[in-house]
Amino acid sequence: MHIGVDISLLRIAQAGVLTYHRSLLNHLVRAGRDCRFTLIDVLPLNPGRSMPPLAALGAPNVRVIRCPGIRRSYLSALPAFRDGIAHTVAAQIDHALDPIWALLARAEMGLELRGASRFVEVFHASDQLPFAPPGAAVVLTIHDLTTRRFPDMHVAENAALHATKERFARDRADRIIAVSEATRRDIVSELGIPPERVSVVYEAADARFRPHTPDETRTILERYDLAHGAYVLSVGTLEPRKNHVRLIEAYAMLHDRYAPAEHLPPLIIAGGNGWKYDAILAAPEQTGVAGFVRFLGRVPDDDLPALIAGSRVFVYPSLYEGFGLPPLEALACGVPVVVSHAASLPEVVGDAGLYCDPYDPHDIARQIAALLEDNDLALRLRYASVIRARQFSWERAARETLAVYAQARDERKARQR
Predict the structure, then answer these.
(1) Exposed, middle or buried, 219 (CB in 10 Å: 0-12/13-18/19+)?
(2) SS3 364
(3) Is the pLDDT of residue 85 over 90?
(4) Cβ(200)–Cβ(181) below 8 Å
(5) Fewest beta carbons within 10 Å, which of 202, 231, 256, 335?
(6) Which residues contact 399 (CB under 8 A, 6 or more apart)?
């Protein structure tokens, strides 16, 4: 089977989406040794950002094709037209030529993409490149429908991007991969896509996420002025859906409860700024715990396993998740977790964690306190966590994804007869 995959997203995506594409691709290439892979990198989608290291790019059954497109030239950028009336006139000419350049760019990229995917039997499209090669079956992964379920928690650019992807899923994709049963149900109910077109393929934690001893975490934790087992951790992009404000409110309730407050481990929040995050950053001061809550920003991938493994409790009270990779990574590290009972999170955590009502800070605080105060419960969940995490693997995800590819190819061939 000849498989095409858009890898442009690797230059753009962050957090869980980046982990999904990077991990899946590496394991796909290994699991599909009898397959040929054409990996298509569309440079204009994000010019200037480097491709992260990826073992799959050098595999013998892989060919990487980069589509450079055409570079836009601006008259107003030339030295002779940078100032005064000449610049104003040149800028007006540039603006008038915008539609023509856009048409030329689309036409050129269409030619490049058709050439790159000429012999592909199945193409795995992405958020950034909803492309259907002529004659090939198309597979698309949908991670969540958050912009539909919580439109007020997103900016217009996110909503537009997801709307384009959803139309492509409905009208062009032969098969759709959902990362959980909850997401599959949303796809069927929200997009009206027949359930037989949607397959569930679970994500997994990378092998780097495992229990660590204090000696193993010490070097990395010292960079953040942290000690093993002495902090409560939450990991996730700062955006409203992740529910950081209520988490901080819950922590403030615990702060009032513990006396002296020094007995309460600090709350550490790791994650880059997403959108609509001002209220999150302001919450510690507004709730009176500014000295006990720390934002680390986006943590390097190499530091994340030790940071998670060194935490005493991992909290993830998200309002909605398509899968929920950070809690699974915490489970793999043997850390007791508190998650919300929303969407896919019960599928991921099972009976290996505690659940909270994400809309009730009192309940979030109650579940965190249970793990801080009941050592027997925390120890039992540490053992259960590792066992639960082993039920998910990227090797399995790769095999199941290859099966979806084969099914999409065979169904398309049957329709063409």
Answers:
(1) exposed
(2) helix
(3) no
(4) yes
(5) 256
(6) 31
Q: Which residues of 233-253 are buried (b: 16+ CB within 10 A; e: fewer)?
A: bbbbbbbbbbbbbbbbbbbbb
**Taking each helix axis from N to C terminus, what angle separates 156-171 and 181-191, rounded to the nearest 10 degrees?**
80
Task: Specify the range with the lowest mean pLDDT, choosing from 76-85, 286-295, 311-320.
Answer: 76-85
Q: Rounded to the nearest 10 degrees, what angle do helices 361-373 and 244-257 cross at? A: 60
Phi, psi of 39, rounded to the nearest 5 degrees? -100, 120
Separation of alpha carbons 305 and 208, rounded Å: 6
Query: Residue 125's beta-bridge partner residues?
Result: 140
Contact by Cβ (8 Å): 41, 51:
yes
Q: Enter the tokens of residue 59.
A: 């595999």
CA 157 to chain centre: 17
> Coil, helix or strand for 102?
helix
Tokens of 341: 């009972």
Instruction: pLDDT band for 80, please (50, 70, 90 cuts).
Output: low
DSSP H or E segment with residue 42: strand 36-42
Residue with tokens 């065979």: 410
Backbone angles phi, psi at 81, to 5 degrees: -125, 25
Helix (H) or strand (E) holding 66: strand 62-67
CA angle 191, 196, 197 (to 5 degrees): 60
Task: Give 214-392's CATH code, choosing from 1.10.150.530, 3.40.50.620, 3.40.50.880, 3.40.50.2000.
Answer: 3.40.50.2000
Residue in 272, 246, 239, 235 with CA at minimum distance from that of residue 153: 239
Does the domain at 2-204+395-416 match CATH 3.40.50.2000? Answer given as yes
Are the C-beta atoms of residues 154 and 275 closer than 8 Å to each other? yes
Q: Are 124 and 3 in contact (CB under 8 A)?
A: yes
- CA dist 329 and 317 (Å) reads 15
H helical segments located in 77-210: 84-116, 146-149, 156-171, 181-191
The one-letter code for the residue type at 333 is C
What gap in Å lies between CA 199 and CA 142, rounded to an integer? Answer: 10
CATH 3.40.50.2000 maps onto the chain at 2-204+395-416, 214-392
Q: Which residues contact 43 (CB under 8 A, 6 or more apart)?
A: 8, 66, 67, 68, 69
pLDDT digit string, tens, across residues 375-386: 999 999 999 999
Q: Return the SS3 of 311.
A: coil
What's the sign of the alpha-carbon dihedral 143, 148, 153, 159? Answer: positive
